[in-house]
Amino acid sequence: MAFNLTRRKFLQTASLAAASVPLSKVVTAEAGVAKSPFTPSGTMADETRVGGVCEMCFWRCQLVGKVRGNRLMKLEGNPKSIDNGQSICARGNAGVQLLYDRDRLKYPMKNVGKRGAPKWKRISWDEALDECAKKLKATETKYGAKGISVFPHGASAKYPMHFLEKTVGTHNVSEASFFQCRGIRDTAFLYTIGTPPGENVDMANAKVIFVLGGHFGENVHVSHVKRYLKGLENGAKLVIVDPRFSASAAKSDEWVPVKPGTDTALMLGMMNYIIQQDKHNKSFIDRYGIGFDEFKDAIAEWSVEKAAKTCDVPAEQIKRVANLLADNAPHVSIHPGRHVSWYGNDFQRQRALACLMGLLGAIGVKGGFVKGKGPKGVGSITWPRGDHHGEALHRMADKYHFAPPGTPTELIRDAAISGKPYPIKSCVIWGQNPLQTIPKPQKTIDMLMQMDFVMCVDVMPTDITMYADILLPEASYLERYDYIKKGTQWDLSGKQQQYISARMPMIMADFERKDQVYITNEIAKRMGYGDKIPVNTLPEMVDKQLAGAGLSIAKLIAEDGIHLQPGKDPYGVPEDLEVFFYNEEIGDYGYPAAPTYIPVEEVPDGYFRLLYGRSPVHTFNRSQNNVWLHHEMPENPVWINDEMADKLGLKDGYRVYCVNSEGVKSRNTTWVKVTPGIRKDSVYMAHGYGSRNPALSVGAGNGIDDQSLITKLAVDPETGCSGMRNNFVKLVKA
Prior knowledge:
By secondary structure, the protein is of the alpha/beta class. The longest helix is centred in the first third of the chain and has 19 residues, at 125-143.
């Protein structure tokens, strides 16, 4: 378990970024590639195809596909998997419907209308690729590589992102997964315990599970939820800190309905109490702690009473939770979260979580923070670095010194709109929907409207594709090779095993859909970078990546899509561990060196703080057009406290608009969910609804787009990541 991961290495690596027939009867969709001799003959034979890796969300469960003729009929978990096993969620099952969605992009298209109100003309691939290369090259020639911006997302976006970032040389790359999701978490933990945390908490073997804002049971990441539920089965106590009575809170021993934005104050009060009660892990801190005395002094002001008043929770509950954690330490899971871009004070909150781990010694032990020891040897294929020079915008501005890989979104938008410190005139959007991921969507539209060229590559006509000049149809995750998945089993207490798998197509791409290697290589050739191309096809790329581990596509197929090998004991505190309770490097840049509570704006009279989260059957906006999933949850009800609803004359099921404190009204309505299970100062809805693109015949116009109401910008000062829970709304009867 390597904890000596340097900032440089992290930034480099992160920016590259139950069968019904025997599994021996397998084939691939690629003609001529290691077909099983037992494949049934005949065009209507039933086949089980292995090597599927789901991408209905980012968790990427391992799949098998049931194929009849040339049609995928059903998806199931791969029974050989030691990760998700035979289990897949509703979204995973509904991948079949994504594959055959009638609204899927089918052909290269050119916008002959206006951005935002497109008129699409079908064109050939040659014409589309010529146009993309010509426009990108023109921007590069006139403005340099810095004139190009990239908004990528998903496994297929890595290859083109590396081409534009490394070979062409643009620094203007912003992934929503970093700047609107987990980037704050990764850098905060890196500068506290020396490694990004992932979701590496051994909940299955914990005595206490402590979760800050996590919605387990609503996010449904299969192996992760299995760890969580196994821990509860084994008797773990559960503490949920959340303004809302979530699915996790419903299973909790302690639900702490904290005032939004005050989570850091809660943890400072808990940690100070644990220290004052002499319940911290002194031997662990003496061996691995850095700056503990300075940390202790910095948080000494946070009495339980002060924390209780700040957080609007009872002082006795804070003591109970702190004692529960300390009395069961070190076998406690302090969960690091994932989507943690909340209030614009988030780096300090995540630092506090990591310090709480260290205070309890909950690292490297059963039930604690444990990084499973995964397999080695799998290589990476990337583009060569060019001769370009220049700095990322945040380094030019000498700010956001602890930003995750890429460039903070706000700086890209500001530079593009103002032209300072330099113009940004081309935009490549690959698999990301910035209108649904980045606060203040009108600002994103303003950015795009001043571009000379906008290129979008996607599977579906999302909202952002309405602003493309050229729109390219991509093969879905069920129609291509690419992603290498590796790791260990979800329950770390059993016999240790490691696995390696690779994404393989369940079915061949239909219409004129192409994969990322084809699209990127063809643009690269036309831009004059043909001699830099690292691989010619996706299967070649996967085989080269697998070769370092002594594997290949053919070998994986022979092993039912998953290679298993003996693992290693994951437990034990690494010798190189250092826990920076007080980090002087952070302090040298002018930020608090010890975790510090930074207050957020109070809710104005007559308004509620807008909170949002996940739906158990949707992956944000990506699955809104999926007929099967839409049937289960077609809208996102807005939760409101029952006492506040009564004062406003609202009853369960009433339809409402939302209007924010800056006068922005939601485009659509939704229905009210009246409940005592949310604080009086907040309302809540699931994120991703209210699509505006009429090309989505199912998803468009259903539910409220919470992102359209997030118009007040709050940027985390250490990382430049977007805070997205600082907006206030009122509910208006429809």
